[in-house]
Write a structure and sequence with these properties.
299 residues, alpha/beta, D-Maltodextrin-Binding Protein, domain 2, globular, 2 domains, six-stranded mixed β-sheet
Length: 299
């Protein structure tokens, strides 16, 4: 073999080694099966990147402290400390971009009060739920259009309903007979509230906790929470939303470890005390419903 041939062979071997190293590094980061688990990586770096959508009371930046807080980050912080990861680093993302951002490795876990649904279960892996909630409407003072359910909105094509991009309320509305032309989609709950106050929509649909909090913080006498709200009834069952953490499909080991901690934590007095400061009550605890049941459409 000539010197030139030897040099070419050496370059080829070096190139092959580089490719193998890169592939194995990517595999390690994505699957946790090579070079240590994802949890081991998080323990080593001391923090986990968390995707959130700045929606109180689920996950938001505290205006006084500048820190990530809310039901989901608070619960996740407890869990991750138990798993040896002391800190969360929030990555602010529009709600509709949370799942794409997770897949793009912008963060490692979604902690945003995201509801478990069969459709989302095809895209991500969910932990078991940390809360269960119904929905509600923000409406004009005295609720002049008598809006107490998604079905009420469907009765008139002139009624305009606001929802947050990517939120489950859009699907609830559609399945309740509301036309897409009646629905305005906003990047956040505060943006929807501003549209409500400006008269661009007649109602805003969100979780019961979200709408109560928005109305309280707004302190606007021209808006209120719709009383006697009826959750949608789909396929013969009243719909209730179960919120949980979301992971990439390949991060099964991390999800299992999180669920192991949640098993003894969720529904406990310590859990209730932790989430009560965000407006949750004992009635909002999820019981023993599992993510697997919800994704399978059995709950």
């Amino acid at each position: 073999m000539t010197r030139h041939q030897k040099l070419n062979a050496m370059i080829a071997i070096v190139g092959l080694v580089i490719i193998i190293v890169v592939v194995e590094a990517l595999r390690s980061d994505r699957t946790g099966k090579v070079g240590g688990s994802l949890l081991a990586k998080l323990r080593k770096q001391g923090f986990v990147r968390v995707g959130f959508a700045n929606e109180a009371p689920f996950a938001y930046i505290d205006s006084k402290t500048g820190k990530l807080t809310g039901e989901s980050p608070s619960d996740l912080r407890y869990v991750m400390k138990k798993l040896g990861v002391p800190h969360l680093k929030g990555v602010l993302t529009n709600f509709g971009s949370l799942i794409p951002g997770l897949e793009a490795h912008r963060f490692d876990i979604i902690a945003a009060g995201m509801y478990i649904t069969p459709a989302r279960g095809q895209q991500v892996l969910f932990s078991n739920p940390t809360f269960a909630l119904g929905d509600g409407f923000v409406v004009k003072r005295k609720n002049p259009l008598h809006l107490h359910s998604f079905a009420d909105v469907a009765k008139s094509p002139r009624i305009r309903l606001g929802v947050v991009a990517g939120a489950q309320e859009y699907q609830y509305a559609i399945e309740s007979g509301v036309k897409p032309s009646q629905i305005s989609v906003f990047p956040s709950a505060p943006a929807a509230l501003a549209a409500m106050q400006a008269g661009r929509i007649d109602a805003y649909a969100g979780t019961a906790l979200t709408v109560r909090r928005l109305v309280t913080l707004a302190a606007d006498p021209n808006i209120t929470v719709a009383r006697r709200f009826s959750n949608p009834v789909l396929k013969g069952h009243e719909v209730q939303g179960y919120g949980a953490f979301a992971f990439r499909k390949r991060d099964t080991a991390l999800c299992r470890n999180v669920d192991a901690v949640l098993k003894s934590f969720v529904n406990s007095p310590a859990h209730l005390k932790r989430i009560q400061r965000f407006g949750f009550t004992r009635a909002d605890l999820p019981g023993r419903v599992t993510a697997q049941q919800i994704v399978a459409g059995k709950k």
